[in-house]
Design a protein that fits this description.
398 residues; alpha+beta; Vitelline Membrane Outer Layer Protein I, subunit A; 4-stranded antiparallel sheet; 9 helices; 41% helix; 24% strand; elongated
C-alpha cells in the first residue's frame, strides 16, 4: 500500500492503536513542538470537535460492525493532533486550574459566612471559569481582584494563541486531506468517508480560528506605543470638557503618571446620599501600560480615599480604552456611564465603541457627557470634595 510521503513520528506512550495497521504514519510537523502559552480551547468547542469525530467513527463502525476495521491511521493522526493541542495549552490550563481553586475557596468562605448572594455570584463565576470564560469586574472585591490577576497573566499567552492554533489546525487539515486521498485511491471508500467527515469538521474549525484571529484586539488595534512614549517626553496633552456639577471650594486634582499609559477604567465608590441608597461618590482611575499591567491612580473624593461604602471595578476589554463619560449630577456627580473605544494606530477608533451600564441611582439632575474624539486618554482632571464633583479626561492632541 502506498505511503503518503509524510515523515513518521512516534505516538505518545499509551496511545491505543485500534483496527488494522498498514504501517503508515502521518506527521504534521509537531515532533519539534515546544510548549507555548496558549488560550484554552473553549470547552464547548473541544466537546464539539470530539463529538464530531466520534460520531463519524461510530457511524462508520456501524456500517462495518467489526471494530478492527476502523482506520487506525485516522485514530493515530487524531491522537497526535490532540496531544499537540494539549501540550500547547498547558500553561493556561494550569492558570485556569489555579483560578478555579481560588474561586472555590471564595465560595466556601461566602457559604461559611452565610452570605447567600455572594455564594450564588461566585458559583456562577466558577461555572464560567470551568468553561474557560472567567469574568471581569465583579461587585465582590476579592473576586474582582482574582479576575484581574487571571486576565493580566493570561494576556501574554493570548497574544500567541491565534497563529499557533491556526498552524496546528492547518497541519491537521492537510494531513487529513492526504489520508483521505490515499484511502480513495486504494478503493477503501468507507475509510475515505469517515476521514472526510473529520476533514470537513477540521476545516470549519480552522475558518473559525482564522476569523477569531482577525477579531483579536492585539492584532487589529496595532496601537502605536512608540509614538505615545515620544509624546510623553514633552506631554503636549489637552483636557476635555468636564462632566459633573459645582467646583466651589473643592480640591482640583490633575493626574498624569510618569510612564506612558492609557486610561482603561475606574474603581467607582458608592454610598447612600439623599433619597438614593447608591450614588457615585468617588472614582479611582485605572491605567494600563505597554506591558498590559494595570495601575491604579489616586482616589478622587474623601469617600474614595477613606474607602467608605461599596466599590465596583469597571475596566475596558483587551485592546480598548475609556473614550467617553456621561454623568447625571446634582451638586456633584450622582451616576456615571463609561464609553470604551478600540485603541488603534495613533488614537481611539470611535466607530468601534461600547457603553457600560449606568452606575449609581438618582432621580432628576442634569446630564452631561464628554468624548475624547479619537484622541488617546492618558490622564484625569477634575474637582472633588467629600464626593466626586467634576471629572474630565486628559488626552493627546486630536
Amino acid at each position: 500500500m502506498a505511503e503518503c510521503g509524510i515523515p513518521s513520528i512516534h505516538t505518545r506512550p499509551g496511545t491505543a492503536m485500534v483496527g488494522r495497521d498498514t504501517g503508515r504514519r502521518f506527521d504534521m510537523g509537531w515532533s519539534g513542538h515546544q510548549d507555548r502559552g496558549m488560550k484554552i480551547l473553549s470547552t464547548n468547542r473541544w466537546i464539539t470537535w470530539v463529538a464530531v469525530l466520534m460520531s463519524a467513527a461510530t457511524g462508520w463502525a456501524e456500517e462495518k460492525s467489526d471494530s478492527r476495521d476502523l482506520p487506525a491511521e485516522l485514530l493515530d493522526l487524531t491522537a497526535k493532533y490532540q496531544d499537540a493541542m494539549t501540550k500547547a495549552e498547558e500553561p493556561l490550563t494550569s492558570l485556569t486550574t489555579f483560578y478555579t481553586e481560588r474561586v472555590s475557596e471564595l465560595k466556601e468562605s461566602a457559604i461559611s459566612a452565610g452570605n447567600l448572594q455572594a455564594a450564588v455570584t461566585i458559583e456562577k463565576e466558577l461555572a464560567n471559569a470551568k468553561k474557560g470564560e472567567p469574568g471581569r469586574d465583579s461587585e465582590i472585591t476579592p473576586l474582582a481582584d482574582l479576575q484581574r490577576t487571571y486576565h493580566e497573566h493570561a494576556r501574554a499567552a493570548l497574544s500567541r494563541v491565534g497563529p499557533e492554533r491556526i498552524r496546528l489546525e492547518s497541519a491537521y487539515v492537510d494531513a487529513l486531506e492526504k489520508l483521505m486521498t490515499t484511502y480513495t485511491r486504494e478503493g477503501d471508500l468507507d475509510a475515505g468517508i469517515v476521514t472526510r467527515r473529520a476533514h470537513d469538521a477540521a476545516r470549519a474549525r480552522l475558518e473559525e480560528w482564522k476569523e477569531m484571529a482577525d477579531l483579536d484586539p492585539s492584532e487589529k488595534s496595532a496601537f502605536d506605543w512608540d509614538r505615545l512614549a515620544k509624546l510623553w517626553e514633552k506631554k503636549p496633552f489637552v483636557t476635555t470638557a468636564a462632566v459633573g456639577g459645582s467646583t466651589q471650594l473643592r480640591t482640583r486634582d490633575r493626574e498624569i503618571l510618569e510612564e506612558p499609559v492609557v486610561l482603561t477604567g475606574f474603581v467607582l465608590h458608592f454610598t447612600a446620599f439623599g433619597d438614593s441608597n447608591k450614588t457615585v461618590r468617588g472614582a479611582t482611575p485605572i491605567y494600563q501600560n505597554r506591558e498590559g499591567r494595570q495601575i491604579e491612580g489616586q482616589p478622587r473624593s474623601t469617600v474614595a480615599i477613606e474607602k467608605r461604602g461599596s466599590r465596583r471595578r469597571v475596566t475596558a476589554k483587551d485592546g480598548y480604552a475609556v473614550c467617553g463619560l456621561k454623568a447625571v449630577s446634582e451638586g456633584a456627580i450622582r451616576t456615571l456611564t463609561i464609553t470604551f473605544g478600540r485603541l488603534k494606530d495613533k488614537g481611539v477608533d470611535m466607530s468601534d465603541t461600547y457603553e457600560s451600564e449606568t452606575y449609581g441611582d438618582w432621580e432628576g439632575g442634569t446630564t452631561t457627557s464628554v468624548s475624547v474624539d479619537g484622541a488617546v486618554p492618558v490622564g484625569i482632571d477634575g474637582f472633588y470634595g467629600t464626593g466626586l464633583d467634576q471629572l474630565a479626561i486628559i488626552t493627546t492632541e486630536p
